[in-house]
User: Fold this.
Amino acid sequence: MLNLFKSSWERYVPPLTARNAWLFIAATVAIQNIVVFHTSQNESTTVFALLIWGGVLICMEDLIEELHPSPNFAVALLASIMLLFVLFRTSLILHSDGVLFILPPIAALALILLANEPRTLYKFRDSLFCVLLFPAYALLFRIMPEGPLSLLTAKVAAFWLSILGLDPIVNGRDVLLKSGGVTVLGACNGLDMIAQVVCISVIFLLAFRLRSLTSRIIVLSLAPLIGLLSNTLRIALLTVISANGSGHGYGFWFDFFHTDSGSLVFSGLAVFVFGSLYMRLLEHELVPESLAIKPTQDFTSEQDK
Assistant:
């Protein structure tokens, strides 16, 4: 019975090899980082962390099968110290601690050092570039002026309302209808949504490369625009809900779409639209019209007929 249990257990547990040990450590580091983001940041930032770690995995997917970790002692010691530092520092993270966005690149570099010698870092350059989006995200929120984006969001939201036949009034940050409206503050201007779509665009460009420079420029130009438009749709919806008062369940729906959970619906919409456009560009490059398979003429001879 014991041998039967052991053989059944071994089928579900991979053998203890250097490659499997590295994969276990890497998964643990990524999960721990995402948990820290979830407990210390808002839902939008947590989704951003999930996207980046997912991008890291996609970019290194082809390397996993041929992965044979063999660092020398000095490199392994340095990488272990780096991982221990990341683990210790994350235990001190507060909500406003910007160090959190610097720790993932340090952890990723340590994992790469454990996977191979420093001279082979170039193999993981795409994954490293993905994880550098963490500090880029934090830097974006510090250098991007909040006012102009909020004013633009209010104007575009009013444009959607006018398309619906309503008569909105824009007064700076305020988007007003006859019976109510909303004020677009910094937390509602959609910068996080724009960052998510731009993050997706970078991951796609690294994992599913476009050959055409024009296509790449189109992708990088459309990504922030799609994020902006998706958030302005949310602001327009909030304006309509606010104008209808708090009765008949409107208060619930306003709170839902105003918070992070509801905004993720529009984040998903933005990612879906961007992904659809990207795949169309990619399909266009993979199957050029000049190489497309066309039906051939039937040259069957009269005798064969």
